[in-house]
Design a protein that fits this description.
single chain; 175 residues; alpha+beta; 5-stranded antiparallel beta sheet; 3-stranded antiparallel beta sheet; 2 helices; 20% helix
Length: 175
C-alpha cells in the first residue's frame, strides 16, 4: 500500500498486532508479522506514482475533519443541510437527506462528538478516510473517500463564476 497515513492519535501503547501486543515499545506474541524487503538504494519503483508530500496530506486531513464535523452536526439537527453543499458530493448529500428523513438520530439523542480521523492519501487528488465518533455512550465508525474537485466558491448569481479546488466527500458510511 502506498501513500501517507495521518492519524489523530499517535499513541500505539496496548495495540495488538497479529495475535501479539505492543507494550512499552516491544512486540510480544507468537505470530510473526510478514515484512516486505526494502528496495535496494537507487532502485526505481515501477507502476506506482510518487507518494504525495506531507503538506497535501495535512490539507486533506484538515478537510476531512471539517467535513465530518459538519456532517455530524447536520445529522444531529444542529446545522442546516445547505451547509454541506460545498464539502460533499450530491450522492452523499442525498444519502444524508434520507438518513435525516428516516430520523436515524432521535430528537432526544445526545450530540455526536468526533473522536479520531485517519486519512490514507492515494495520490494528489484521492484519499480514503476512516475514524470514530461518540454519541451518548456508544462509539461508531465512519469511513469513506474524498476527492479533490473544483467547487463553486462565488455567491449564486455573480458572474464570472469562481471555482476553487477543494476536498469533498464522495463516499460516506456509518458502521
Amino acid at each position: 500500500m502506498t501513500g501517507i497515513l495521518l492519524e489523530t492519535d499517535a499513541s500505539i501503547t496496548g495495540a495488538s498486532i497479529a495475535g501479539g501486543s505492543i507494550a512499552g515499545g516491544s512486540i510480544t506474541g507468537t505470530s510473526p508479522v510478514p515484512v516486505r524487503a526494502a528496495a535496494p538504494p537507487g532502485a526505481r519503483r515501477t507502476g506506482r506514482s510518487r507518494p504525495p508530500d506531507l503538506e497535501a496530506a495535512t490539507a486533506v486531513r484538515a478537510a476531512a475533519l471539517g467535513a465530518l464535523q459538519r456532517v455530524l452536526e447536520v445529522l444531529d439537527g444542529r446545522r442546516p443541510r445547505g451547509l454541506l453543499s460545498r464539502c460533499v458530493d450530491e450522492q452523499v448529500l442525498a444519502q444524508l437527506t434520507a438518513l435525516i428523513q428516516h430520523r436515524v438520530v432521535g430528537p432526544g439523542d445526545d450530540c455526536a462528538r468526533l473522536c479520531r480521523v485517519h486519512v490514507q492519501l492515494h495520490d494528489a487528488a484521492l484519499a480514503d478516510y476512516f475514524g470514530s465518533y461518540v454519541r451518548g455512550g456508544r462509539v461508531r465508525a465512519v469511513a469513506g473517500r474524498m476527492e479533490l474537485r473544483p467547487v463553486r466558491v462565488s455567491p449564486a448569481g455573480t458572474l464570472p463564476r469562481k471555482l476553487e479546488d477543494r476536498w469533498i466527500l464522495t463516499e460516506f458510511a456509518i458502521v
